[in-house]
Amino acid sequence: MTVTHDLPGAGEQVLLVGLGNPGPRYAGNRHNVGFLVLDEIADRIGGRFKAHKGGAEVCEGRLAGRRVVLAKPRSFMNLSGGPVSGTARFFKIGPEGIVVIHDELDLPYGAIRLKFGGGAGGHNGLRSITKSLGTQDYFRVRFGIDRPPGRMDPADYVLKDFSTPERRELALNIGLCADAVETLIDKGLTAAQNAFHGR
């Protein structure tokens, strides 16, 4: 029997979390793609981010007819869990209503994959969130950044800006990832997977 996971009912708020590191030094890094996708979604809903006591920059609005809270943790990536759980508690949103958007080394550049639950896969931001929430049962939207070339340390690679060829496609790929988030909210996980996993 296949178990499908979807977000809570239409009347419930959804928390969209973009992962990254705060400050201009990191703004264009591969590790900050979650922030970039949230910036695109904020533009779509006409919202602006403001500092929030939960520990994140927060923007509220409606996406695909749903009330959404966008959150960019103000902590560094490895400590994302505190701001995520704090913001979720403030808005009374359970783990099943949380969607985390993050970079993924094990996917080709620009590939988009959506899933519910699962391990951290070596991603320290996810590890911190899972620890703070006390569960791994939340949604993830993964944006492929590919593996580092040669013998480059992955920890160095994720903290470098996208390459010139990658930047040519970046706005398009960020837009597609935002589309995937919107489809997840509007039509559910299976529909979003069917629409975006073949790209």
UniProtKB/TrEMBL annotation:
It comes from the Bacteria. SUPFAM superfamilies: Peptidyl-tRNA hydrolase-like. PROSITE patterns: PEPT_TRNA_HYDROL_1, PEPT_TRNA_HYDROL_2. It is found in: Cytoplasm. The record marks D103 as: Stabilizes the basic form of H active site to accept a proton. It catalyses: an N-acyl-L-alpha-aminoacyl-tRNA + H2O = an N-acyl-L-amino acid + a tRNA + H(+). Keywords: Cytoplasm, Hydrolase, RNA-binding, tRNA-binding. The active site is at H31 (proton acceptor). One of its GO terms (cellular component) is cytoplasm. GO terms for molecular function: peptidyl-tRNA hydrolase activity; tRNA binding. Belongs to the PTH family. HAMAP family: Pept_tRNA_hydro_bact. This is Peptidyl-tRNA hydrolase. The lineage of its organism: Bacteria, Bacillati, Actinomycetota, Actinomycetes, Pseudonocardiales. The gene is pth.
